[in-house]
Every structure is written in C-alpha cells, then in structure tokens.
Amino acid sequence: MAETVWLFLGLLGVLTLASAIATMLSWKSRRMTEVLPSTLVNLNARIKAWWIMIGSISIAFLFGKTGVILLFAFVSFASLREYVTLTHTRRGDHFILIGMFLIIIPIQYYLLWIEWYGLYSIFVPVYCFLAMPALTAISGDTERFLERVSEQQWGIMLSVYCISHVPALLTLSIPGFQGKGLLLIAFLIVTVQGSDVLQYVFGKLFGKHKVAPKISPSKTWEGLIGGIASASLLGASLAWLTPFTVLQAGLMAGLACIMGFFGGLVASAIKRDRGVKDWGQMIEGHGGMLDRADSLIFAAPIFFHIVRYFWAA
Amino acid sequence: MVLAGLARGITGVRPIWQGCAPSDRQRIFFANHCSHGDFILLSSSLPPRERQRTRAVAGADYWKRNKLRHILAKDLLNTVLVDRNWVERSEDPMVVMLDALQEGSSLIVFPEGTRNMTEEPLLRFRSGLYNLALARPDVELIPCWIENMSRVLPKGTFLPVPLLCRVVFGTPVALEPNEDRKDFLQRARQSLLELSPEHRKALNHG
Lengths: 313, 206
Known about the structure:
The structure holds two protein chains of two kinds.
Chain A: H1 2-32, H2 38-62, H3 64-85, H4 94-113, H5 117-120, H6 123-139, H7 145-162, H8 181-206, H9 221-237, H10 246-274, H11 289-310
Helix pairs in contact in A: 1-2, 2-3, 3-4, 3-7, 4-7, 6-7, 8-9, 8-10, 8-11, 9-10, 10-11
Chain B: H1 2-11, E1 14-17, E2 27-31, H2 38-44, H3 48-52, E3 54-59, H4 60-63, H5 67-76, E4 80-82, H6 93-102, E5 106-109, H7 128-135, E6 140-147, H8 149-152, E7 166-169, H9 181-193, H10 197-205
Parallel strand pairs in B: 1-7, 2-5, 2-6, 3-4, 3-5
Antiparallel strand pairs in B: 6-7
Helix pairs in contact in B: 1-2
Transmembrane segments (chain A): 49-74, 95-113, 119-138, 158-177, 183-202, 223-241, 247-270
GO molecular function (chain A): nucleotidyltransferase activity
Keywords (chain A): Membrane, Nucleotidyltransferase, Transferase, Transmembrane, Transmembrane helix
C-alpha cells in the first residue's frame, strides 16, 4: 500500500524535524546555562518516546491485522495494570482481578480477531458487566462493595472495551475501501495523538486561560482551540488515507479530537481524585500508557460507530 | 534470572534509590514482608551484579516442610534457610546468616519474622537485625519498602495479579555506639516506615 509508505515517511520526517529542533534548543540553552530547563528535558524524553511508539506501531502494521490486535491487547494490558494499581482492591477480589487480565482481555481481542461484531460489541458491557458483580458477591466480602465493583467495571470499559475499538476498525467493510482498514487506524491515531501534541504546543506557546483549573493546570483554551483546529486541518489533509472527502475528514478528525480532549480531562480528574500526577512511568516523559492512551479511549468508540453507521456496508 | 524477568514483566517494578545508590559494597537489605513475591521483587530491582550475590533469608520451618518447597528454596531461589523455632532448632540462625555474610553474600532479611497479615503497616522487629548489626558493623543496613506486592500475590494465592510495584531504597542505618537493642530496632523500624507511601502522604499534607 503506497499510502502507508507515504504516511510513515511523513511521520519520519516530522519526528526528525522535531528531534532536530529539540537538539538545537538544547544546544542553545546549554551554551547559556549548565543545566537544561525541565521543560526541555521533558521535551527531549517525549520525542525519544515518540520514536519508540511510532516504531512499535510500524512493526505492528507490518504484521497486519494480527500485529495490530496484539499491539492493542498489550496497550489494554498496560493500561489496565496502571488503572487497577490506583483502585481500591481487597483480597476477595483477587480472582476477579486475575480474570480481568487473563480472561477478559484475551476474549475481547479474540472476538475482534474472528470479527464477531455481535459479540465483541456487547461482551464487556453486557456479560462482564453482570458477571463481575455476581462473582464478587459470591466471594462474600461486602465491604465497599459498590465502589469496588464500579471501579473494576470502569477499568474494563476504559482499558479494554474502548481501546479495542481502534483495532475494531479493521473489521468494518467499507465499499470501495476494502482491505484498507489499517489506514483508517493510522488516520485516527495520527489525528488524535497529533491533536494532543498540537494542544501541548499551542498551550506552551499561547496558553493563558485555563479550561478546568481544578482538574488540569496544563489545559488552556488557547491550547484546546489551536490544537483541535490545527488537528482538524491535519485530518483534512490526510483525507487521501480514508474513504472520506476532505471536508468529512476534517470533521471526523475534529470530532475525534474533541472526544480525545474529554478523555484526557476525565483521566486527569481520576488522577486528581487519587492524588497522582501520572498513571505510571512506562513511557519516558509522557508518564504511563494511560497518559498516552486516554484520548484514544474516548475517541475510538465514537469514531468507530460513526464510520460504521455512515460508511460501512 | 527468569524469575526476575517475570517479576519485572508482571509488576513493571521500579527501584527508587532514595537514600542510597546501587554499589558493590556488601549489604543487608531489610524490608517489609507481605507476600512470597517480596524477595523476588526486591532482588529483581537490584542491578544484575548486586543481585547475583544477594541471597534472601527465609524460614526453614516453612520451606523445609515438603520436598518441593525445599528444592525450590534451596536450589532455585538460593535462599539462606534459618530455623525460626527456638525449641527444636538444629542450627543457630545467627551462625547460618553470619556464615553467608562471611562468604561475601549480601542478604535480604524480613525483620518482622513473618508475613504481615494485619492492618498495621509494619509489625514489631525481631532482634536478628540488631545481632547482625552488632556482629558485622562493616556491612551496610539498607531499609527497603516494598509497595503493592501484597496485592499482587496475597498470602494463600499462587497466581499473581499484574499491578505496578515499587521498591524504595532508603538511607543506610548503622548501629550507634552504646545503643541498646530496643532503641536500635525501633530506629530501624522507623527508618523503614518513613519510606512507605502513607508516611510520604502524611508529610505532604502536614
């Protein structure tokens, strides 16, 4: 697929440019002071992590459907692990927790692999939703029951169900777009993650008015509007990857980015509630897997269902 | 080696060298104890060279109870087995531990003596730590707080839940001249408690 090659060449170019700029900024600042300011250290770490993340996505793409499904099963595993670490668990929950990792994740991704839409779209919200509290009740420990059960269900919904809608795009059959599902995934990831980066850049450059000062000090209206507007333009310019027209691509990108913003906001609210700054330390400079995936979690299911409703056969 | 890799894969463990740095010195790591996974987690967060010469001290009465456990503890995990039972013991635990130190090994000890199943963050320390400090003042005593392992592998279970764990290494504690047993154990226990997240939280809010 020529499109994939062009896309990855483009990403390679952007990353090289970012690395070059960061190296130049570091070099300039090192001439003035001995120690790098923390923003620059963080910027360097972030760009390095992007190389690794884009590298892993490229490798997954090389292996096609299987690669992408395995990659996102791993993303689910890492996200769920970060999430559960921050929740309240009791000894009676032990087997449910193991089941979340060893049973629910494999089943959800297996259902995707065999493309059984009728089941993978309800497996978590119907079957797991009912089975988990039932099994918890059997264990007999009622202390903080509702809280424990809800936290487990949230974890599964966010880290497994919602994230699995990214590879689910591969199962859609779109007339005139057969066999190009990977490009749709690339479009979603590039626009949503691009919007995160652009929001960060616009926020750092022009940010003044905070959107939700109680939740996140780094989210500003300037960053939000600038980021989403530019990411929509980015999406429009990537229309050639998709079954959309240029206008549709821009709108879909904008919608995904707005959802992504809410995902980040909700994730921040949970982190604030638990008194932590990041979900983990897995991805240097970014925090944990969930710090990177939070926007995709909210964007993917909506993006999936709109594409399915309007474009899929 | 395999176990260390497995432990890291499941718990994504991160060593936090808060009060000391990895080194080639002979050391005794003393830690809180809630789970069988504790010492595997602790040793897997040491750098390879330090890990290789570090052996855990474990209760012989538990690990010799059946053949499988014995093989596991002795050959696979290379632990230093000591008898906790005062009446029927055949070897003096102090002699066994000092022998291991004599051979140049570093040790991991759990001064609470058993896995802590209570709501208390840390049980009272047994006196072994004091005796070790007295006999080998040249060996550094490092407090290590193991976080979350009790949730990964609670007592009585054998399948671990993957959760993120941390091991915090604190500032070495040394026996002061004329310090008596009780004071020293109290101070060592306090130095370990201060590494716990509850304590750090209390500090941040105070």
